[in-house]
Automatic annotation (TrEMBL):
Protein name: Regulatory protein YycH domain-containing protein
Residue span, Regulatory protein YycH domain: 3-441
Domain of life: Bacteria
Length: 454
Protein backbone atom coordinates (compact mmCIF):
# COMPACT_ATOMS: atom_id res chain seq x y z
CA UNK A 1 0.00 0.00 0.00
CA UNK A 2 2.78 2.42 0.98
CA UNK A 3 4.69 1.60 -2.19
CA UNK A 4 1.56 2.31 -4.26
CA UNK A 5 1.22 5.76 -2.66
CA UNK A 6 4.88 6.54 -3.32
CA UNK A 7 4.54 5.51 -6.95
CA UNK A 8 1.40 7.61 -7.42
CA UNK A 9 3.04 10.64 -5.78
CA UNK A 10 6.13 10.28 -7.96
CA UNK A 11 4.06 10.16 -11.15
CA UNK A 12 2.09 13.18 -9.99
CA UNK A 13 5.30 15.17 -9.49
CA UNK A 14 6.63 14.07 -12.87
CA UNK A 15 3.42 15.09 -14.64
CA UNK A 16 3.36 18.41 -12.74
CA UNK A 17 6.96 19.09 -13.79
CA UNK A 18 6.11 18.36 -17.43
CA UNK A 19 3.06 20.63 -17.22
CA UNK A 20 5.01 23.53 -15.68
CA UNK A 21 7.83 23.14 -18.21
CA UNK A 22 5.29 23.27 -21.03
CA UNK A 23 3.72 26.41 -19.54
CA UNK A 24 7.13 28.13 -19.42
CA UNK A 25 7.95 27.21 -23.01
CA UNK A 26 4.60 28.36 -24.35
CA UNK A 27 4.15 31.43 -22.11
CA UNK A 28 3.12 34.59 -24.01
CA UNK A 29 3.15 37.72 -21.79
CA UNK A 30 0.36 40.27 -22.14
CA UNK A 31 1.78 43.36 -23.85
CA UNK A 32 -1.42 45.35 -24.20
CA UNK A 33 -0.69 47.68 -21.32
CA UNK A 34 2.91 48.32 -22.38
CA UNK A 35 1.92 48.91 -25.99
CA UNK A 36 -0.73 51.42 -25.01
CA UNK A 37 1.72 53.48 -22.96
CA UNK A 38 3.09 56.39 -24.97
CA UNK A 39 6.81 57.04 -24.61
CA UNK A 40 7.67 60.64 -23.93
CA UNK A 41 11.13 61.82 -24.93
CA UNK A 42 12.17 64.55 -22.52
CA UNK A 43 15.76 64.80 -23.68
CA UNK A 44 15.19 67.15 -26.63
CA UNK A 45 13.90 70.60 -25.76
CA UNK A 46 14.43 72.33 -29.10
CA UNK A 47 16.51 71.70 -32.21
CA UNK A 48 19.98 70.46 -33.03
CA UNK A 49 21.92 72.70 -35.41
CA UNK A 50 25.10 72.41 -37.43
CA UNK A 51 27.88 74.97 -37.34
CA UNK A 52 26.96 76.65 -40.63
CA UNK A 53 23.37 77.03 -39.40
CA UNK A 54 24.35 79.21 -36.42
CA UNK A 55 26.95 81.43 -38.07
CA UNK A 56 25.58 84.18 -40.27
CA UNK A 57 26.84 87.61 -41.35
CA UNK A 58 25.62 90.77 -39.68
CA UNK A 59 25.38 92.49 -43.06
CA UNK A 60 25.40 91.37 -46.68
CA UNK A 61 26.40 94.26 -48.95
CA UNK A 62 26.15 94.32 -52.74
CA UNK A 63 28.52 96.72 -54.52
CA UNK A 64 27.61 97.66 -58.07
CA UNK A 65 29.52 100.24 -60.12
CA UNK A 66 30.26 102.58 -57.22
CA UNK A 67 26.99 102.11 -55.31
CA UNK A 68 26.32 99.87 -52.30
CA UNK A 69 23.11 98.10 -51.26
CA UNK A 70 21.92 96.11 -48.22
CA UNK A 71 18.87 93.98 -47.39
CA UNK A 72 16.46 95.67 -45.00
CA UNK A 73 15.97 92.60 -42.80
CA UNK A 74 19.01 90.52 -43.78
CA UNK A 75 16.81 87.42 -43.93
CA UNK A 76 15.44 85.76 -47.07
CA UNK A 77 17.54 87.29 -49.84
CA UNK A 78 20.63 87.90 -47.75
CA UNK A 79 20.46 84.33 -46.43
CA UNK A 80 20.23 83.01 -49.98
CA UNK A 81 23.39 84.90 -50.90
CA UNK A 82 25.11 83.60 -47.78
CA UNK A 83 24.20 79.97 -48.39
CA UNK A 84 24.96 80.12 -52.11
CA UNK A 85 28.37 81.73 -51.83
CA UNK A 86 29.46 79.95 -48.68
CA UNK A 87 29.11 76.67 -50.54
CA UNK A 88 31.68 77.80 -53.08
CA UNK A 89 34.91 75.76 -53.21
CA UNK A 90 37.98 77.88 -52.51
CA UNK A 91 41.50 77.09 -53.69
CA UNK A 92 44.99 78.55 -54.03
CA UNK A 93 45.06 80.52 -50.79
CA UNK A 94 47.77 83.14 -50.75
CA UNK A 95 48.59 86.04 -48.51
CA UNK A 96 48.76 89.45 -50.14
CA UNK A 97 50.95 91.68 -47.97
CA UNK A 98 50.75 94.54 -50.47
CA UNK A 99 47.04 94.13 -51.21
CA UNK A 100 45.03 97.26 -50.49
CA UNK A 101 42.40 97.10 -47.76
CA UNK A 102 38.88 96.39 -48.94
CA UNK A 103 37.69 99.94 -49.41
CA UNK A 104 40.36 100.33 -52.10
CA UNK A 105 39.73 97.01 -53.88
CA UNK A 106 39.20 98.09 -57.46
CA UNK A 107 36.17 96.19 -58.74
CA UNK A 108 32.79 97.23 -60.13
CA UNK A 109 31.04 94.15 -58.71
CA UNK A 110 31.54 92.90 -55.14
CA UNK A 111 29.55 91.01 -52.51
CA UNK A 112 30.67 91.68 -48.94
CA UNK A 113 29.83 89.53 -45.90
CA UNK A 114 30.39 91.28 -42.55
CA UNK A 115 30.37 89.11 -39.42
CA UNK A 116 29.23 90.30 -35.98
CA UNK A 117 32.61 89.26 -34.60
CA UNK A 118 35.82 87.69 -35.88
CA UNK A 119 35.46 84.07 -37.02
CA UNK A 120 38.38 81.80 -35.97
CA UNK A 121 40.07 80.21 -38.98
CA UNK A 122 39.43 76.65 -37.76
CA UNK A 123 35.70 77.45 -37.58
CA UNK A 124 35.90 78.92 -41.08
CA UNK A 125 37.56 75.74 -42.33
CA UNK A 126 34.82 73.59 -40.84
CA UNK A 127 32.10 75.67 -42.52
CA UNK A 128 33.83 75.21 -45.87
CA UNK A 129 34.63 71.56 -45.12
CA UNK A 130 38.28 72.28 -45.78
CA UNK A 131 41.23 70.19 -44.74
CA UNK A 132 42.40 71.54 -41.39
CA UNK A 133 45.99 71.16 -42.54
CA UNK A 134 45.40 73.77 -45.26
CA UNK A 135 47.31 76.96 -44.59
CA UNK A 136 45.07 80.03 -44.46
CA UNK A 137 47.79 82.49 -43.34
CA UNK A 138 45.21 84.10 -41.06
CA UNK A 139 43.88 83.24 -37.59
CA UNK A 140 40.54 85.06 -37.67
CA UNK A 141 38.29 86.60 -40.29
CA UNK A 142 36.22 89.79 -39.90
CA UNK A 143 34.62 89.80 -43.32
CA UNK A 144 34.66 88.15 -46.75
CA UNK A 145 34.52 89.93 -50.08
CA UNK A 146 33.79 88.21 -53.40
CA UNK A 147 35.05 90.51 -56.15
CA UNK A 148 35.10 90.44 -59.93
CA UNK A 149 38.67 90.95 -61.16
CA UNK A 150 40.62 90.77 -64.38
CA UNK A 151 43.35 88.20 -64.82
CA UNK A 152 45.29 88.67 -68.04
CA UNK A 153 42.59 88.67 -70.74
CA UNK A 154 39.72 87.16 -68.74
CA UNK A 155 37.54 87.97 -65.74
CA UNK A 156 37.43 85.84 -62.60
CA UNK A 157 35.65 85.96 -59.23
CA UNK A 158 38.06 85.90 -56.29
CA UNK A 159 37.43 86.02 -52.56
CA UNK A 160 39.25 88.18 -50.01
CA UNK A 161 39.40 87.02 -46.38
CA UNK A 162 40.04 90.11 -44.28
CA UNK A 163 41.38 90.39 -40.73
CA UNK A 164 41.44 94.00 -39.61
CA UNK A 165 42.95 93.08 -36.24
CA UNK A 166 45.87 91.30 -37.91
CA UNK A 167 45.97 93.76 -40.85
CA UNK A 168 46.07 90.84 -43.26
CA UNK A 169 44.15 89.97 -46.42
CA UNK A 170 44.19 86.43 -47.82
CA UNK A 171 43.09 85.83 -51.39
CA UNK A 172 41.66 82.65 -52.96
CA UNK A 173 40.22 81.60 -56.31
CA UNK A 174 36.62 80.50 -56.82
CA UNK A 175 34.74 78.72 -59.60
CA UNK A 176 31.79 81.17 -59.55
CA UNK A 177 30.63 81.93 -63.13
CA UNK A 178 31.20 85.59 -63.95
CA UNK A 179 27.82 86.03 -65.67
CA UNK A 180 25.89 84.62 -62.72
CA UNK A 181 27.87 86.77 -60.27
CA UNK A 182 27.04 90.00 -62.13
CA UNK A 183 23.41 88.97 -62.57
CA UNK A 184 23.00 88.23 -58.84
CA UNK A 185 24.24 91.67 -57.87
CA UNK A 186 22.38 93.62 -60.56
CA UNK A 187 19.05 91.85 -60.01
CA UNK A 188 18.91 92.11 -56.22
CA UNK A 189 20.44 95.56 -55.78
CA UNK A 190 17.51 97.09 -57.64
CA UNK A 191 14.67 94.95 -56.29
CA UNK A 192 15.04 93.98 -52.65
CA UNK A 193 17.98 95.96 -51.27
CA UNK A 194 18.24 99.61 -50.19
CA UNK A 195 21.16 101.96 -50.87
CA UNK A 196 23.77 102.46 -48.15
CA UNK A 197 27.00 104.34 -47.61
CA UNK A 198 30.16 103.23 -45.71
CA UNK A 199 30.90 104.57 -42.24
CA UNK A 200 34.29 103.86 -40.66
CA UNK A 201 33.94 103.03 -36.97
CA UNK A 202 37.47 101.99 -35.99
CA UNK A 203 40.78 102.82 -37.65
CA UNK A 204 43.26 99.98 -37.16
CA UNK A 205 46.04 101.73 -39.06
CA UNK A 206 47.73 101.10 -42.41
CA UNK A 207 44.41 101.63 -44.16
CA UNK A 208 42.59 98.86 -42.27
CA UNK A 209 39.25 99.99 -40.84
CA UNK A 210 36.12 98.51 -39.33
CA UNK A 211 33.44 99.73 -41.72
CA UNK A 212 29.69 99.38 -41.39
CA UNK A 213 27.04 100.49 -43.86
CA UNK A 214 24.23 102.92 -43.03
CA UNK A 215 21.11 103.72 -45.07
CA UNK A 216 21.08 106.85 -47.21
CA UNK A 217 17.34 107.26 -46.65
CA UNK A 218 15.19 106.64 -43.56
CA UNK A 219 13.79 103.11 -43.15
CA UNK A 220 10.38 101.92 -41.96
CA UNK A 221 10.16 98.73 -39.92
CA UNK A 222 7.16 97.12 -38.22
CA UNK A 223 6.72 96.41 -34.53
CA UNK A 224 5.30 92.97 -33.75
CA UNK A 225 3.77 91.07 -30.84
CA UNK A 226 4.51 87.39 -30.23
CA UNK A 227 3.15 84.80 -27.82
CA UNK A 228 5.88 83.64 -25.42
CA UNK A 229 5.48 80.07 -24.13
CA UNK A 230 7.42 78.96 -21.03
CA UNK A 231 9.87 76.07 -21.33
CA UNK A 232 9.29 73.26 -18.80
CA UNK A 233 11.83 73.30 -15.98
CA UNK A 234 11.59 69.50 -15.64
CA UNK A 235 13.05 69.04 -19.12
CA UNK A 236 16.23 70.87 -18.13
CA UNK A 237 16.38 69.06 -14.80
CA UNK A 238 16.41 65.75 -16.67
CA UNK A 239 19.08 66.69 -19.21
CA UNK A 240 21.45 68.85 -17.14
CA UNK A 241 21.87 66.41 -14.23
CA UNK A 242 23.48 63.01 -14.59
CA UNK A 243 20.87 61.40 -12.29
CA UNK A 244 17.68 63.48 -11.89
CA UNK A 245 16.43 61.15 -9.12
CA UNK A 246 19.02 62.57 -6.73
CA UNK A 247 18.26 66.22 -7.46
CA UNK A 248 16.88 68.31 -4.60
CA UNK A 249 14.51 71.21 -5.17
CA UNK A 250 14.59 74.45 -3.16
CA UNK A 251 12.09 77.30 -3.35
CA UNK A 252 13.56 80.67 -2.36
CA UNK A 253 11.66 83.32 -0.41
CA UNK A 254 11.70 85.60 -3.48
CA UNK A 255 9.96 82.94 -5.59
CA UNK A 256 13.11 81.79 -7.41
CA UNK A 257 13.86 78.08 -7.65
CA UNK A 258 17.06 76.06 -7.30
CA UNK A 259 17.90 72.46 -8.17
CA UNK A 260 21.10 70.70 -7.13
CA UNK A 261 22.60 67.24 -6.91
CA UNK A 262 25.31 68.40 -4.53
CA UNK A 263 27.62 69.42 -7.35
CA UNK A 264 25.74 70.89 -10.29
CA UNK A 265 23.13 73.59 -9.76
CA UNK A 266 20.28 75.06 -11.81
CA UNK A 267 18.73 78.37 -10.75
CA UNK A 268 15.47 79.64 -12.26
CA UNK A 269 15.56 83.45 -12.10
CA UNK A 270 13.63 86.57 -13.13
CA UNK A 271 10.19 85.15 -12.47
CA UNK A 272 10.95 81.91 -14.32
CA UNK A 273 12.30 83.63 -17.46
CA UNK A 274 16.03 82.86 -17.01
CA UNK A 275 17.92 79.60 -16.37
CA UNK A 276 21.44 79.64 -14.94
CA UNK A 277 23.30 76.32 -14.89
CA UNK A 278 26.55 75.95 -12.92
CA UNK A 279 28.80 72.91 -13.22
CA UNK A 280 31.96 73.57 -11.17
CA UNK A 281 34.95 71.64 -12.49
CA UNK A 282 38.52 71.39 -11.34
CA UNK A 283 40.02 72.60 -14.60
CA UNK A 284 43.56 72.81 -13.26
CA UNK A 285 43.46 69.03 -12.87
CA UNK A 286 42.22 68.45 -16.43
CA UNK A 287 44.34 68.89 -19.52
CA UNK A 288 42.32 70.80 -22.10
CA UNK A 289 42.11 69.25 -25.54
CA UNK A 290 42.40 71.19 -28.81
CA UNK A 291 38.66 71.43 -29.33
CA UNK A 292 37.60 75.02 -29.97
CA UNK A 293 35.16 76.45 -27.43
CA UNK A 294 32.60 77.14 -30.19
CA UNK A 295 32.48 73.41 -30.97
CA UNK A 296 32.16 72.63 -27.24
CA UNK A 297 29.28 75.10 -26.92
CA UNK A 298 27.55 73.70 -30.00
CA UNK A 299 27.89 70.10 -28.74
CA UNK A 300 26.54 71.10 -25.34
CA UNK A 301 23.46 72.80 -26.79
CA UNK A 302 22.81 70.03 -29.32
CA UNK A 303 23.02 67.50 -26.49
CA UNK A 304 19.59 68.62 -25.29
CA UNK A 305 18.23 70.51 -28.30
CA UNK A 306 19.04 73.88 -26.78
CA UNK A 307 18.33 75.90 -29.92
CA UNK A 308 14.70 76.72 -29.13
CA UNK A 309 14.52 79.74 -31.49
CA UNK A 310 16.62 81.45 -34.15
CA UNK A 311 19.83 81.96 -32.17
CA UNK A 312 23.05 82.81 -34.03
CA UNK A 313 26.69 83.07 -32.99
CA UNK A 314 27.29 86.62 -31.80
CA UNK A 315 30.50 86.93 -29.79
CA UNK A 316 33.54 85.12 -28.43
CA UNK A 317 35.33 86.51 -25.38
CA UNK A 318 38.45 85.34 -23.57
CA UNK A 319 39.22 86.01 -19.91
CA UNK A 320 42.65 84.56 -19.23
CA UNK A 321 42.18 80.80 -19.64
CA UNK A 322 38.38 81.09 -19.58
CA UNK A 323 36.24 81.51 -22.70
CA UNK A 324 32.67 82.67 -23.26
CA UNK A 325 30.45 82.10 -26.32
CA UNK A 326 27.20 84.02 -26.88
CA UNK A 327 24.36 83.24 -29.29
CA UNK A 328 21.89 86.07 -30.01
CA UNK A 329 18.16 85.82 -30.76
CA UNK A 330 17.07 86.93 -34.25
CA UNK A 331 13.45 87.58 -35.20
CA UNK A 332 12.53 88.10 -38.84
CA UNK A 333 16.20 88.37 -39.72
CA UNK A 334 16.90 91.15 -37.20
CA UNK A 335 18.82 90.83 -33.91
CA UNK A 336 17.37 91.59 -30.47
CA UNK A 337 19.68 93.93 -28.54
CA UNK A 338 17.82 95.09 -25.43
CA UNK A 339 14.83 94.59 -23.16
CA UNK A 340 12.70 96.72 -20.90
CA UNK A 341 14.02 94.70 -17.93
CA UNK A 342 17.18 96.58 -17.05
CA UNK A 343 20.45 94.75 -17.81
CA UNK A 344 18.90 91.29 -18.29
CA UNK A 345 20.55 90.29 -21.55
CA UNK A 346 19.78 86.60 -21.24
CA UNK A 347 16.17 87.17 -22.25
CA UNK A 348 17.58 87.26 -25.79
CA UNK A 349 21.01 85.65 -25.43
CA UNK A 350 22.34 82.16 -24.74
CA UNK A 351 25.72 82.34 -23.02
CA UNK A 352 28.09 79.42 -22.38
CA UNK A 353 31.29 79.63 -20.35
CA UNK A 354 34.23 77.20 -20.42
CA UNK A 355 36.93 77.39 -17.76
CA UNK A 356 40.35 75.76 -17.67
CA UNK A 357 39.03 72.32 -18.54
CA UNK A 358 36.98 70.95 -21.42
CA UNK A 359 33.47 71.13 -20.00
CA UNK A 360 30.91 73.92 -20.10
CA UNK A 361 30.89 75.32 -16.57
CA UNK A 362 28.13 77.92 -16.89
CA UNK A 363 25.09 78.11 -19.12
CA UNK A 364 22.56 80.95 -19.06
CA UNK A 365 19.53 81.15 -21.31
CA UNK A 366 15.90 82.34 -21.64
CA UNK A 367 13.19 79.98 -20.41
CA UNK A 368 10.57 80.81 -23.00
CA UNK A 369 10.08 80.25 -26.71
CA UNK A 370 8.31 82.61 -29.09
CA UNK A 371 5.80 81.54 -31.73
CA UNK A 372 7.11 81.71 -35.28
CA UNK A 373 4.35 84.04 -36.44
CA UNK A 374 3.30 87.26 -34.66
CA UNK A 375 -0.22 87.69 -33.35
CA UNK A 376 -0.17 91.39 -34.18
CA UNK A 377 1.86 93.73 -36.41
CA UNK A 378 1.78 97.41 -35.51
CA UNK A 379 2.28 100.41 -37.73
CA UNK A 380 5.76 101.03 -39.09
CA UNK A 381 8.40 102.79 -37.04
CA UNK A 382 10.61 105.30 -38.83
CA UNK A 383 14.33 104.69 -38.34
CA UNK A 384 16.28 107.84 -39.26
CA UNK A 385 18.83 107.73 -42.05
CA UNK A 386 22.47 107.02 -41.37
CA UNK A 387 23.33 110.72 -41.68
CA UNK A 388 20.67 111.66 -39.11
CA UNK A 389 21.93 108.95 -36.78
CA UNK A 390 25.56 110.13 -36.94
CA UNK A 391 24.55 113.75 -36.39
CA UNK A 392 22.45 112.77 -33.37
CA UNK A 393 25.40 110.89 -31.84
CA UNK A 394 27.88 113.70 -32.47
CA UNK A 395 25.51 116.24 -30.90
CA UNK A 396 25.37 114.36 -27.59
CA UNK A 397 27.73 116.01 -25.11
CA UNK A 398 28.65 112.82 -23.25
CA UNK A 399 29.33 110.82 -26.44
CA UNK A 400 32.97 109.73 -26.88
CA UNK A 401 33.82 108.58 -30.37
CA UNK A 402 36.59 106.25 -29.16
CA UNK A 403 34.08 104.12 -27.20
CA UNK A 404 31.98 103.38 -30.29
CA UNK A 405 32.70 99.89 -31.67
CA UNK A 406 29.65 99.03 -33.82
CA UNK A 407 26.30 100.27 -35.18
CA UNK A 408 23.26 98.27 -36.20
CA UNK A 409 19.49 98.33 -36.14
CA UNK A 410 17.40 95.66 -34.48
CA UNK A 411 14.71 95.07 -31.89
CA UNK A 412 14.17 95.99 -28.29
CA UNK A 413 12.10 93.39 -26.44
CA UNK A 414 9.29 94.48 -24.14
CA UNK A 415 8.15 91.67 -21.82
CA UNK A 416 4.45 91.61 -20.94
CA UNK A 417 3.45 88.45 -19.06
CA UNK A 418 2.77 85.77 -21.68
CA UNK A 419 3.80 87.76 -24.75
CA UNK A 420 6.55 90.05 -25.96
CA UNK A 421 6.52 93.18 -28.10
CA UNK A 422 9.45 93.78 -30.47
CA UNK A 423 10.09 97.37 -31.49
CA UNK A 424 12.72 98.42 -34.08
CA UNK A 425 15.43 100.85 -32.95
CA UNK A 426 18.91 102.03 -33.86
CA UNK A 427 21.60 100.59 -31.58
CA UNK A 428 25.27 101.29 -30.98
CA UNK A 429 27.84 99.10 -29.33
CA UNK A 430 29.28 101.60 -26.89
CA UNK A 431 31.87 100.89 -24.22
CA UNK A 432 31.38 97.17 -24.81
CA UNK A 433 27.57 97.09 -24.55
CA UNK A 434 24.70 97.45 -27.00
CA UNK A 435 22.59 100.51 -26.25
CA UNK A 436 19.48 101.90 -27.87
CA UNK A 437 19.89 105.31 -29.49
CA UNK A 438 17.10 107.80 -28.83
CA UNK A 439 16.47 110.33 -31.55
CA UNK A 440 13.77 112.90 -30.84
CA UNK A 441 11.29 111.91 -33.52
CA UNK A 442 11.81 108.19 -32.89
CA UNK A 443 10.79 108.14 -29.21
CA UNK A 444 7.25 107.14 -28.27
CA UNK A 445 6.52 108.46 -24.76
CA UNK A 446 4.25 105.52 -23.97
CA UNK A 447 7.00 103.01 -24.68
CA UNK A 448 10.12 104.96 -23.70
CA UNK A 449 13.10 102.77 -22.93
CA UNK A 450 15.19 104.03 -20.03
CA UNK A 451 18.56 102.50 -20.88
CA UNK A 452 20.87 103.79 -23.58
CA UNK A 453 22.19 107.18 -24.50
CA UNK A 454 19.75 109.96 -23.63
Amino acid sequence: MVEHIKTTTLWFLILLSVFLTYQIWTFQPEYAILKSTEYIDNTQIGLEKKLHEVIKPKQVILHEEGKSFASIDNSVFAQRFYEEYFGTPLEKFMIRPNLSPFHRINSDYKIEFIFPTSIPSEIFKDIYQMNHSDQLFISKIDRMVFALEKERDKEIVRVKLISNDERVIVEANTNIPVSRFIEDIALNSTNVFYEVFPFDIIDFGNGYRKTTYLPIEAMYLNSATYIAKPLPTDHFRQVLFSDPNFVKHYLQSNGEESFTDGNRMVNILQGGNILRYINPTFGDLVERNNKHVIFSALDFLNGHGGFTSSFYFDSLKTFGTSEEVTFRLFIGGLPVYSTNIFEVNNLFEITLHRGNGNQIEQYVRPMFIMDEEPINISKSTRLPSGKELIEALENKEEFERSLLTDINYGFTMIMRQSFVVLEPRWFIQYNGNWQVVHIAEEVDDSEAITNGLE
